Protein backbone atom coordinates (compact mmCIF):
# COMPACT_ATOMS: atom_id res chain seq x y z
CA UNK A 1 0.00 0.00 0.00
CA UNK A 2 2.82 2.44 0.93
CA UNK A 3 4.59 1.74 -2.35
CA UNK A 4 1.39 2.34 -4.31
CA UNK A 5 0.64 5.59 -2.45
CA UNK A 6 4.19 6.83 -3.14
CA UNK A 7 3.80 6.03 -6.87
CA UNK A 8 0.39 7.73 -7.04
CA UNK A 9 1.76 10.84 -5.35
CA UNK A 10 4.75 10.92 -7.66
CA UNK A 11 2.66 10.88 -10.82
CA UNK A 12 -0.15 13.24 -9.72
CA UNK A 13 1.20 16.27 -11.59
CA UNK A 14 0.67 17.32 -15.25
CA UNK A 15 4.35 17.40 -16.29
CA UNK A 16 4.94 13.98 -14.77
CA UNK A 17 2.04 12.48 -16.72
CA UNK A 18 3.55 13.98 -19.86
CA UNK A 19 6.93 12.48 -18.92
CA UNK A 20 5.27 9.11 -18.45
CA UNK A 21 3.69 9.20 -21.87
CA UNK A 22 6.98 10.27 -23.53
CA UNK A 23 9.09 7.63 -21.76
CA UNK A 24 6.51 5.00 -22.72
CA UNK A 25 7.27 5.78 -26.35
CA UNK A 26 11.09 5.84 -26.18
CA UNK A 27 14.03 5.91 -23.80
CA UNK A 28 15.04 9.57 -23.64
CA UNK A 29 17.76 11.76 -22.13
CA UNK A 30 17.09 14.71 -19.82
CA UNK A 31 18.14 17.13 -22.51
CA UNK A 32 15.74 15.57 -25.04
CA UNK A 33 12.91 15.68 -22.50
CA UNK A 34 13.79 19.30 -21.66
CA UNK A 35 13.62 20.20 -25.35
CA UNK A 36 10.20 18.53 -25.74
CA UNK A 37 8.63 19.96 -22.57
CA UNK A 38 10.13 23.44 -22.93
CA UNK A 39 10.97 23.54 -19.21
CA UNK A 40 14.27 24.12 -17.46
CA UNK A 41 16.67 21.19 -17.07
CA UNK A 42 16.76 21.30 -13.21
CA UNK A 43 12.98 21.18 -13.14
CA UNK A 44 12.73 18.25 -15.52
CA UNK A 45 15.53 16.44 -13.64
CA UNK A 46 13.66 16.87 -10.38
CA UNK A 47 10.45 15.40 -11.83
CA UNK A 48 12.43 12.49 -13.25
CA UNK A 49 14.23 11.87 -9.96
CA UNK A 50 10.93 11.62 -8.07
CA UNK A 51 9.44 9.32 -10.67
CA UNK A 52 12.47 7.02 -10.58
CA UNK A 53 12.38 6.95 -6.77
CA UNK A 54 8.70 6.02 -6.93
CA UNK A 55 9.49 3.12 -9.28
CA UNK A 56 7.52 4.55 -12.24
CA UNK A 57 10.55 5.17 -14.44
CA UNK A 58 13.95 3.50 -14.73
CA UNK A 59 17.18 5.41 -15.24
CA UNK A 60 20.31 4.01 -16.80
CA UNK A 61 23.63 5.61 -17.59
CA UNK A 62 25.53 5.55 -20.83
CA UNK A 63 28.84 7.36 -20.34
CA UNK A 64 27.97 10.88 -19.26
CA UNK A 65 24.36 10.56 -20.44
CA UNK A 66 21.41 9.18 -18.50
CA UNK A 67 18.42 7.67 -20.25
CA UNK A 68 14.94 7.37 -18.79
CA UNK A 69 12.38 4.74 -19.74
CA UNK A 70 9.40 3.01 -18.17
CA UNK A 71 10.20 0.77 -15.20
CA UNK A 72 9.60 -2.85 -16.12
CA UNK A 73 9.22 -4.42 -12.66
CA UNK A 74 7.49 -3.59 -9.38
CA UNK A 75 4.28 -1.86 -8.36
CA UNK A 76 5.35 1.40 -10.07
CA UNK A 77 5.68 -0.42 -13.40
CA UNK A 78 2.18 -1.88 -13.07
CA UNK A 79 0.76 1.52 -12.21
CA UNK A 80 2.53 3.14 -15.19
CA UNK A 81 1.00 0.69 -17.63
CA UNK A 82 -2.51 1.22 -16.19
CA UNK A 83 -2.13 5.02 -16.29
CA UNK A 84 -0.88 4.94 -19.85
CA UNK A 85 -4.13 3.30 -20.90
CA UNK A 86 -5.96 6.28 -19.40
CA UNK A 87 -3.82 9.05 -20.92
CA UNK A 88 -5.79 10.40 -23.86
CA UNK A 89 -3.57 10.30 -26.94
CA UNK A 90 -5.43 13.06 -28.76
CA UNK A 91 -5.10 15.49 -25.88
CA UNK A 92 -3.50 18.60 -27.53
CA UNK A 93 -0.57 18.72 -25.05
CA UNK A 94 0.18 15.00 -25.41
CA UNK A 95 -0.11 15.30 -29.20
CA UNK A 96 2.31 18.23 -29.30
CA UNK A 97 4.79 16.38 -27.06
CA UNK A 98 4.68 13.33 -29.30
CA UNK A 99 5.13 15.47 -32.42
CA UNK A 100 8.26 17.06 -30.90
CA UNK A 101 9.47 13.61 -29.91
CA UNK A 102 9.09 12.51 -33.52
CA UNK A 103 11.32 15.42 -34.65
CA UNK A 104 13.98 14.38 -32.13
CA UNK A 105 13.85 10.79 -33.29
CA UNK A 106 14.30 11.88 -36.88
CA UNK A 107 17.32 13.98 -35.98
CA UNK A 108 18.81 11.01 -34.08
CA UNK A 109 18.18 8.68 -36.99
CA UNK A 110 19.89 11.10 -39.41
CA UNK A 111 22.94 11.37 -37.14
CA UNK A 112 23.16 7.59 -36.81
CA UNK A 113 22.75 7.12 -40.55
CA UNK A 114 25.62 9.50 -41.28
CA UNK A 115 27.94 7.55 -38.95
CA UNK A 116 26.80 4.34 -40.65
CA UNK A 117 27.49 5.79 -44.11
CA UNK A 118 30.97 6.87 -43.02
CA UNK A 119 31.81 3.31 -41.94
CA UNK A 120 29.71 1.28 -44.35
CA UNK A 121 32.53 0.81 -46.86
CA UNK A 122 34.67 -1.01 -44.27
CA UNK A 123 31.81 -3.20 -43.14
CA UNK A 124 30.86 -4.09 -46.70
CA UNK A 125 34.47 -4.94 -47.50
CA UNK A 126 34.52 -7.51 -44.66
CA UNK A 127 31.07 -8.84 -45.50
CA UNK A 128 32.21 -9.55 -49.06
CA UNK A 129 34.80 -12.01 -47.72
CA UNK A 130 32.30 -14.58 -46.50
CA UNK A 131 28.95 -16.21 -47.20
CA UNK A 132 25.88 -14.03 -47.56
CA UNK A 133 25.03 -12.56 -44.16
CA UNK A 134 21.38 -13.54 -44.77
CA UNK A 135 22.45 -17.22 -44.77
CA UNK A 136 24.21 -16.79 -41.43
CA UNK A 137 21.16 -15.07 -39.94
CA UNK A 138 18.75 -17.73 -41.24
CA UNK A 139 21.00 -20.46 -39.82
CA UNK A 140 21.17 -18.73 -36.46
CA UNK A 141 17.40 -18.31 -36.24
CA UNK A 142 16.91 -21.90 -37.23
CA UNK A 143 19.22 -23.07 -34.44
CA UNK A 144 17.25 -20.99 -31.93
CA UNK A 145 14.18 -23.16 -32.71
CA UNK A 146 10.58 -22.19 -33.12
CA UNK A 147 9.61 -21.75 -29.46
CA UNK A 148 9.42 -18.13 -28.22
CA UNK A 149 12.44 -16.93 -26.23
CA UNK A 150 11.67 -15.20 -22.95
CA UNK A 151 14.82 -13.12 -22.28
CA UNK A 152 17.15 -12.67 -25.25
CA UNK A 153 20.58 -11.07 -24.98
CA UNK A 154 22.81 -10.00 -27.89
CA UNK A 155 26.35 -9.22 -26.73
CA UNK A 156 28.29 -6.71 -28.86
CA UNK A 157 25.05 -5.84 -30.63
CA UNK A 158 26.60 -3.09 -32.80
CA UNK A 159 23.85 -1.74 -35.03
CA UNK A 160 21.37 -4.14 -33.42
CA UNK A 161 20.93 -6.32 -36.49
CA UNK A 162 20.77 -9.62 -34.57
CA UNK A 163 18.40 -8.08 -32.03
CA UNK A 164 16.19 -6.97 -34.91
CA UNK A 165 16.01 -10.40 -36.56
CA UNK A 166 15.31 -12.15 -33.24
CA UNK A 167 12.70 -9.56 -32.18
CA UNK A 168 9.66 -11.41 -33.59
CA UNK A 169 10.66 -14.51 -31.61
CA UNK A 170 11.41 -12.98 -28.18
CA UNK A 171 9.34 -11.63 -25.32
CA UNK A 172 12.10 -9.23 -24.30
CA UNK A 173 15.38 -8.49 -26.08
CA UNK A 174 18.46 -6.63 -24.89
CA UNK A 175 21.51 -5.69 -26.93
CA UNK A 176 24.70 -4.48 -25.24
CA UNK A 177 27.68 -2.75 -26.80
CA UNK A 178 30.49 -0.43 -25.75
CA UNK A 179 30.17 1.93 -28.70
CA UNK A 180 27.84 4.90 -28.34
CA UNK A 181 27.78 5.43 -32.10
CA UNK A 182 26.76 1.83 -32.77
CA UNK A 183 24.08 2.04 -30.08
CA UNK A 184 22.70 5.21 -31.66
CA UNK A 185 22.19 3.29 -34.91
CA UNK A 186 20.67 0.34 -33.03
CA UNK A 187 18.26 2.64 -31.19
CA UNK A 188 17.20 4.33 -34.42
CA UNK A 189 16.55 0.91 -36.00
CA UNK A 190 14.50 -0.33 -33.05
CA UNK A 191 12.49 2.87 -33.10
CA UNK A 192 11.94 2.75 -36.85
CA UNK A 193 10.55 -0.78 -36.58
CA UNK A 194 8.69 0.05 -33.35
CA UNK A 195 10.33 -2.83 -31.49
CA UNK A 196 9.45 -1.59 -28.03
CA UNK A 197 10.11 -4.94 -26.37
CA UNK A 198 13.78 -4.64 -27.34
CA UNK A 199 16.32 -2.26 -25.81
CA UNK A 200 20.00 -1.53 -26.08
CA UNK A 201 22.41 -0.54 -23.32
CA UNK A 202 25.99 0.56 -23.20
CA UNK A 203 27.85 -2.18 -21.37
CA UNK A 204 31.12 -4.05 -21.39
CA UNK A 205 30.87 -7.71 -22.34
CA UNK A 206 33.40 -8.50 -19.59
CA UNK A 207 31.12 -7.02 -16.94
CA UNK A 208 27.51 -7.41 -18.00
CA UNK A 209 24.99 -5.37 -15.99
CA UNK A 210 22.78 -8.40 -15.53
CA UNK A 211 21.87 -10.79 -12.76
CA UNK A 212 23.29 -14.31 -12.90
CA UNK A 213 21.10 -16.84 -14.71
CA UNK A 214 18.81 -14.23 -16.27
CA UNK A 215 19.02 -14.87 -20.05
CA UNK A 216 17.36 -17.68 -21.98
CA UNK A 217 19.28 -17.25 -25.23
CA UNK A 218 22.50 -15.32 -25.88
CA UNK A 219 24.16 -14.45 -29.17
CA UNK A 220 27.71 -13.14 -29.66
CA UNK A 221 27.84 -12.37 -33.36
CA UNK A 222 31.14 -11.26 -34.95
CA UNK A 223 32.48 -9.76 -31.74
CA UNK A 224 35.06 -12.13 -30.27
CA UNK A 225 37.70 -11.48 -32.96
CA UNK A 226 38.01 -7.93 -31.53
CA UNK A 227 38.33 -9.15 -27.95
CA UNK A 228 41.48 -8.96 -25.84
CA UNK A 229 40.20 -11.84 -23.81
CA UNK A 230 37.53 -13.83 -25.65
CA UNK A 231 37.60 -16.60 -23.02
CA UNK A 232 36.64 -14.06 -20.34
CA UNK A 233 33.78 -12.81 -22.54
CA UNK A 234 32.45 -16.37 -22.91
CA UNK A 235 32.74 -16.92 -19.12
CA UNK A 236 30.83 -13.71 -18.43
CA UNK A 237 28.11 -14.66 -20.94
CA UNK A 238 27.83 -18.11 -19.29
CA UNK A 239 27.33 -16.42 -15.91
CA UNK A 240 24.12 -14.74 -17.06
CA UNK A 241 22.72 -17.79 -18.88
CA UNK A 242 19.76 -19.52 -17.16
CA UNK A 243 19.96 -23.26 -16.47
CA UNK A 244 18.70 -24.81 -19.70
CA UNK A 245 19.54 -21.56 -21.56
CA UNK A 246 21.57 -21.57 -24.76
CA UNK A 247 24.30 -19.46 -26.30
CA UNK A 248 25.39 -19.13 -29.94
CA UNK A 249 28.80 -17.65 -30.79
CA UNK A 250 29.29 -16.65 -34.43
CA UNK A 251 32.76 -15.81 -35.71
CA UNK A 252 35.32 -16.81 -38.27
CA UNK A 253 37.10 -20.15 -38.45
CA UNK A 254 40.92 -19.75 -38.35
CA UNK A 255 42.21 -17.78 -41.37
CA UNK A 256 45.33 -15.94 -42.48
CA UNK A 257 44.03 -12.55 -43.66
CA UNK A 258 46.59 -10.60 -41.69
CA UNK A 259 45.39 -7.28 -43.20
CA UNK A 260 42.20 -7.58 -41.12
CA UNK A 261 44.42 -7.29 -38.08
CA UNK A 262 46.37 -4.34 -39.42
CA UNK A 263 43.55 -2.38 -41.00
CA UNK A 264 40.36 -3.47 -39.25
CA UNK A 265 41.54 -3.95 -35.67
CA UNK A 266 40.87 -7.68 -35.60
CA UNK A 267 42.91 -9.15 -32.74
CA UNK A 268 42.21 -12.75 -33.58
CA UNK A 269 42.31 -14.31 -37.03
CA UNK A 270 39.40 -16.65 -36.34
CA UNK A 271 38.98 -19.40 -33.77
CA UNK A 272 39.42 -23.16 -33.79
CA UNK A 273 36.41 -25.22 -32.68
CA UNK A 274 38.41 -26.79 -29.83
CA UNK A 275 39.33 -23.35 -28.48
CA UNK A 276 35.76 -22.02 -28.21
CA UNK A 277 34.47 -25.38 -27.03
CA UNK A 278 37.04 -25.54 -24.23
CA UNK A 279 36.08 -22.03 -23.02
CA UNK A 280 32.43 -23.10 -22.94
CA UNK A 281 33.23 -26.29 -21.03
CA UNK A 282 35.40 -24.40 -18.54
CA UNK A 283 32.51 -21.97 -18.02
CA UNK A 284 30.30 -24.92 -17.04
CA UNK A 285 28.39 -25.22 -20.33
CA UNK A 286 27.58 -28.27 -22.42
CA UNK A 287 28.82 -27.99 -25.99
CA UNK A 288 26.23 -28.54 -28.75
CA UNK A 289 27.00 -29.28 -32.43
CA UNK A 290 29.04 -26.65 -34.33
CA UNK A 291 28.05 -25.47 -37.82
CA UNK A 292 30.42 -24.18 -40.50
CA UNK A 293 29.29 -22.00 -43.39
CA UNK A 294 32.13 -22.15 -45.88
CA UNK A 295 32.82 -18.97 -47.85
CA UNK A 296 35.68 -17.51 -49.87
CA UNK A 297 38.07 -16.88 -48.27
CA UNK A 298 36.43 -16.84 -44.82
CA UNK A 299 34.40 -19.57 -43.19
CA UNK A 300 31.83 -18.55 -40.61
CA UNK A 301 31.42 -20.89 -37.62
CA UNK A 302 28.44 -21.05 -35.29
CA UNK A 303 29.35 -22.60 -31.97
CA UNK A 304 26.56 -23.47 -29.58
CA UNK A 305 26.50 -24.27 -25.90
CA UNK A 306 23.90 -24.84 -23.20
CA UNK A 307 23.86 -24.43 -19.45
CA UNK A 308 22.87 -27.78 -17.91
CA UNK A 309 19.29 -27.73 -16.64
CA UNK A 310 15.73 -28.44 -17.70
CA UNK A 311 14.73 -27.45 -21.24
CA UNK A 312 13.38 -23.89 -21.18
CA UNK A 313 10.99 -23.82 -24.09
C1 LIG B 1 31.79 -6.21 -35.94
S1 LIG B 1 30.76 -5.48 -34.74
C2 LIG B 1 29.48 -6.72 -34.70
C3 LIG B 1 28.17 -6.13 -34.33
C4 LIG B 1 26.97 -7.07 -34.35
N1 LIG B 1 27.11 -8.16 -33.41
C5 LIG B 1 26.72 -7.57 -35.75
O1 LIG B 1 27.16 -8.68 -36.04
O2 LIG B 1 26.11 -6.86 -36.55
C6 LIG B 1 31.57 -5.78 -33.19
C7 LIG B 1 30.91 -5.04 -32.04
O3 LIG B 1 31.50 -5.45 -30.79
C8 LIG B 1 31.51 -4.33 -29.94
N2 LIG B 1 32.44 -4.55 -28.83
C9 LIG B 1 33.78 -4.69 -28.91
N3 LIG B 1 34.30 -4.86 -27.67
C10 LIG B 1 33.26 -4.84 -26.80
C11 LIG B 1 33.14 -4.97 -25.38
N4 LIG B 1 34.22 -5.13 -24.59
N5 LIG B 1 31.92 -4.92 -24.83
C12 LIG B 1 30.82 -4.71 -25.60
N6 LIG B 1 30.87 -4.59 -26.95
C13 LIG B 1 32.07 -4.65 -27.54
C14 LIG B 1 31.92 -3.20 -30.86
O4 LIG B 1 31.60 -1.93 -30.35
C15 LIG B 1 31.12 -3.54 -32.12
O5 LIG B 1 29.88 -2.88 -32.13
Write structural notes for this entry.
The chain is α/β, with parallel strands linked by helices and 313 residues long. The chain has 2 domains: 2-101, Orthogonal Bundle (Arc Repressor Mutant, subunit A); 129-306, Vaccinia Virus protein VP39 (Rossmann fold, 3-Layer(aba) Sandwich), CATH 3.40.50. 48% of the residues lie in helices and 22% in strands. The protein has 12 helices and 10 strands. The strands form 2 sheets. The protein has a 7-stranded mixed sheet with strand order 6-5-4-7-8-10-9, with helices on both faces. It has a 3-stranded antiparallel sheet with strand order 1-3-2. A hairpin with a 2-residue loop joins β2 (57-62) and β3 (65-70). The longest helix has 36 residues, at 92-127. The mean pLDDT is 91. Residues 156-159, 161-162, 176-179, 182, 204-206, 221-223, 226 line the site of S-adenosylmethionine.
List keywords for this structure.
3-stranded antiparallel beta sheet, 2 domains, 313 residues, Arc Repressor Mutant, subunit A, alpha/beta, binds S-adenosylmethionine, Rossmann fold, single chain
Amino acid sequence: MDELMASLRAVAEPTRLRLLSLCADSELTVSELTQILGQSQPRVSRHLKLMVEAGLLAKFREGIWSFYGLATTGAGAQLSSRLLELIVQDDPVVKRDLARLEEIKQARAEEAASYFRANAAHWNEIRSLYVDEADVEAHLLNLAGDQPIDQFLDIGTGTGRILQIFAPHVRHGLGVDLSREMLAIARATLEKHRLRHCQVRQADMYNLPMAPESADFITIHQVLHFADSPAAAVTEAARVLKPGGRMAVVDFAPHDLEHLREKRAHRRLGFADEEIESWCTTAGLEVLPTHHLAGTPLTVSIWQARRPGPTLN
